[in-house]
Amino acid sequence: MNAIINNLEIIRTKSSKIKDVDFDNLKFGQIFSDHMLLCHYKDGQWDAPKVVPYQSINLDPSAKIFHYGQAVFEGMKAYKDANEDVWLFRPMDNYKRLNISANRLAMPELPEDYFMEGLKALLKVDNEWIPKQDGSSLYIRPFIFASGGGFHASPADEYTFIIATAPSGAYFSGKVKVLIEEKYSRSANGGVGYAKAGGNYAGQFYPTQLAVEKGYQQVIWTDDNTHEYIEEAGAMNIFVRIKDTLITGPTSDRILDGITRKSIIELAESEGIAVEVRKLSVHEVVEAAQNGDLKEMFGAGTAAVISPIAGFGYKGTDYDLPELENSYASSLKQRITDIQTNKAEDPFGWRFKVE
Ligand SMILES: *Cc1c(COP(=O)(O)O)cnc(C)c1O
Q: How far is the CA of 256 from the centre of ligand 1 (A)?
C-alpha cells in the first residue's frame, strides 16, 4: 500500500439521503449512495483517489467520451452478512478486467491499490448503504471515461475514474423469453466484445428493442460470421443444459469472460455436474428442444447471478423449456449466493472480506 492511499482524502456529505431510502423495497440500481470514489488522470498519471459526496460532473462538450465513446465499466456487489461483516466476490477479477477493457480502448490502466483501497474506503464511508435484507446487496459500478477534450479522433489525454454504488434489491427478471438473433451481432472477431466497453451495450439496444416488439425480452447473440453458434444472452453469459450436461461457449474476442460464468463452471464441476466448454450450435439446441433433451437455458452475470430462460424463438418458431423440479439454475444460484453472502463455506477462496 502506498502513501497516497494511506492518506486517502475523504470529504463527507453534509446532507445524507439515507433516511429517504426504503431498504425493504429496493429496485435495482435506481438510487445512489451518499458518496463516490473520484480520481483523475492527467499529464500521464492518476491523481490520488478521493471519497467525495455523490455529485454531478462537469464535462467540456468536446470531452471524447461524447464523440468517440472511450468508456469502460465494471459491475460488482457488496454483501452484508448477519454479523454486519461486508463481503465482495472475486474483486481482483473485476480490477484486472477493468484494465483489460481500458487497454483495448487505448485508455490508461489503473493501479491496483487505487481500485482496491479506494473501493474499501468508499464501502467504509457508505457502510450504512449496504443492505442487510436477504437478496439485497450494494451494486458497485466502477468506470473510467475520457474526460479530456478535442474533436480530433484520437485517445483523450485526460480520464476520470469513478466508483458509484447503488443499494439494490434482488434482480428479478421474471420468465424470460429470448429470441435467437439471425441478423445483428453484439461483437466480432478483432472487436471489443470481450471488453466491458459502453458502446457494446449501446449497439445492443436496437436489436433488443426489435425483439421486445416481437414479444421477447432478450436477445441470444450468435457468432457474427455465420449466426450458427450461441454466444451470449443479452449482457450475460449463457449456459444450456442438454440432458444432464451443462454447456457454455469458450471465451474469445467476442464473448465476455464473466466472473459468474467461470464460477458456475467451477462450482458445477465440483458438484459432479458434467460441464462442456465448447461451441454450441443453434441447430443442436433446436434439435435438443425437439427431441426433449433440452432441459434448461440460463443467463449468468453479476446483476441477476443466474437468470432462467423460459423459452426461445428461432426462425418464426417458439420453443418452450420444461419446468424442472431439480434445475441446475436454482441449485447453482443458491450455492453461489450462499458463498457470496457468507452463509456457506467457500472452498474456492472467492469471498473477500472488506476490513
Ligand atoms: C458483464 C457481462 C457479463 C457477465 O460478467 P460477470 O463478471 O459475471 O458480471 C457477461 N456478458 C457481458 C456482455 C457482460 O457485459
A: 6
Query: How far is the centre of ligand 1, averaged over its atoms, from the C-alpha of 94 (Å)?
Result: 10
The alpha carbon of 46 and the centre of ligand 1 are apart by a number of angstroms equal to 27
Counts of helices then strands in the chain (DSSP H, E)? 8, 19
pLDDT at res. 4: 56
Annotate 49-116 with DSSP letters as a single string. Answer: PEEEE-------TTBHHHHH--EEE--EEEEE-TT--EEEESHHHHHHHHHHHHHHTT-PPPPHHHHH
Phi, psi (deg, nearest 5) at residue 128: -65, -20
> Position of cell 457468432?
223
State whether residue 344 is helix, strand or coil: coil
Residue 17: left (phi > 0), alpha (psi -120 to 50), or beta? alpha
Residue that is written with C-alpha cell 427478471 in the block? 173
3-class DSSP state for residue 181? coil
Helix axes 328-340, 259-270, angle to 10 degrees: 110
Alpha carbon distance 320, 23 (integer Å): 36
Atom of ligand 1 nearest to the CA of 261: 8
Q: For the chain, list residues with pLDDT below 50.
A: 1
Ligand 1 pocket check for 72: Cβ under 6 Å:
no
The CA distance from 348 to 79, in Å, is 18
Cell of 212: 421486445
Determine the 3-state secondary structure of 340 from DSSP: helix
Mean pLDDT, the chain, rounded, equals 96
Q: Which residues of 241-254 are buried (b: 16+ CB within 10 A; e: fewer)?
A: bbeeebbbbebeeb
Residue 314 CA to residue 304 CA, distance in Å, equals: 24
- pTM, to two decimals: 0.97
Q: Is 256 in the pocket of ligand 1 (CB under 6 A)?
A: yes
